[in-house]
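User: Here's a chain of 85 residues. Predict its fold as tokens.
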Amino acid sequence: MYKYTLFRPFTDYDAPLTEAGDYSEKYFAAKTLIAKYNLNVPNVAMPTAPAETTKTAYPTISATQHLTLNDLVLQVVILFEGNFE
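Assistant: Prediction complete.
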């Protein structure tokens, strides 16, 4: 009846910035390349890059309760009941 497919989030491992917002090798390569050709454009300066963010490790937590998908759907239906007109 229903056909489900696995959703895999897309991660660009070759991006100039990591998922955490840190600079990758590609960032520095692009910055070097832009600086190389930026010489032909007057009055355009390369801005300084913002500092990288501080990373924090959070402790592990355990879930003690949960809702089923059906419970969630029923809550949404009750919340929006009559507001679809």
